[in-house]
Design goal:
globular, alpha/beta, single chain, L-2-Hydroxyisocaproate Dehydrogenase, Chain A, domain 2
Length: 311
């Protein structure tokens, strides 16, 4: 049986950490690609040398040649400039549109049937960029932000309640930014509604921290942005696809009739399986949730207009 293959474009902190998460899951052989000569090969060798200790049987290739990514089942794009203190995700738009456009053109030349998972910021706009450049069916292009944002939301809830993270089930909608929409009404702890365990003020504090989760880490690191959790989120999505697990995960996905978006890549719950995004799940939002979600979509649309002007 032919082994599956995942290529990760960008071998920096996010890319290399993603390779590590994927290897531990033994999902596929892994290609790390970066334009910095020698760096991806060095990280691939380091990961390979850890395999006897980690007990994972996968092969690693580090390269600067896109030919080595040929016939990838999944390509995870992490390329782009990271955020620094004082920067918003939107500040990265111009530089990263060019980077993601160039990367996507190269990727699809060698892997025309692959599934694309975007990690680069601003996430929703970069997912749109890759979709427009690739002209892939919309089910084969997605962004990892919803999975990451919900993980942060669940973490803060578990910490506030001093309970196992495994018992926290939550959902989140909207763009990957300060106007994302955590959904307390759809959040439970071992089946118990969140509002039974925390008061409204406590919930509001957690929601606000979730929205600012990325910049909190940026401000602490001072020289870069988060990478363990974003990489883990991308790996979880890849696992759902390669194992056809049909997981319900929040992802940046194409919505048209759904949520009356009229055509937009935005964070929504989806069924993720072998076909990529197999279904967008449309929730019945109350008035407040819908207003917040619409505002988030409006922000994403503004970014998309800027992308269109740059392409």
């Amino acid at each position: 049986m032919t082994r599956k293959k995942i290529s990760i474009i960008g071998a920096g902190n996010v890319g290399a950490t993603c390779a590590h998460w994927l290897a531990q899951k033994e999902l596929a052989d892994i290609v790390l690609l970066d334009i910095i000569e020698g760096m991806p090969a060095g990280k691939a060798l380091d990961l390979a040398e850890a395999s006897p200790i980690g007990r994972y049987d996968v092969s690693f290739t580090g390269t600067s040649d896109y030919q080595d990514t040929a016939h990838s089942d999944i390509v995870i794009i992490t390329s782009g400039l990271p955020r620094k203190p004082g920067m918003s995700r939107d500040d990265l738009l111009k530089s990263n549109v060019k980077i993601v456009s160039d990367v996507t053109r190269q990727v699809i030349t060698y892997s025309p049937d692959t599934i694309l998972i975007l990690v680069s910021n601003p996430l929703d706009a970069m997912t749109y960029t890759a979709a427009r450049i690739s002209n892939f069916p919309k089910n084969r292009v997605m962004g990892m932000a919803g999975t990451l944002d919900t993980a942060r939301y669940r973490t803060f809830i578990a910490q506030a309640l001093n309970v196992s993270i495994n018992d926290v089930s939550a959902l989140l909608l909207g763009g990957h930014g300060d106007d994302m929409v955590p959904l307390p009404r759809y959040t439970t702890i071992s089946g118990i509604p969140l509002k039974e365990l925390l008061d409204q003020r406590q919930i509001e504090v957690i929601v606000d921290r979730t929205r600012k989760g990325g910049i909190e880490i940026v401000n602490l690191l001072k020289t870069g942005s988060a990478y363990y959790a974003p990489a883990a989120a991308a790996a979880e999505m890849a696992e759902a696809i390669l194992k056809d697990k049909r997981r319900i995960l929040p992802c940046c996905a194409w919505c048209d009739m759904e949520y009356n978006t009229g055509g937009c890549f935005v964070g929504v719950p989806v069924i993720l399986g072998a076909g990529g995004i197999e279904k967008v799940i449309e929730l019945d939002l109350n008035l407040q949730e819908k207003q917040l979600f619409d505002a988030s979509i409006d922000h994403v649309r503004e970014l998309v207009k800027k992308v269109d002007a740059l392409l």
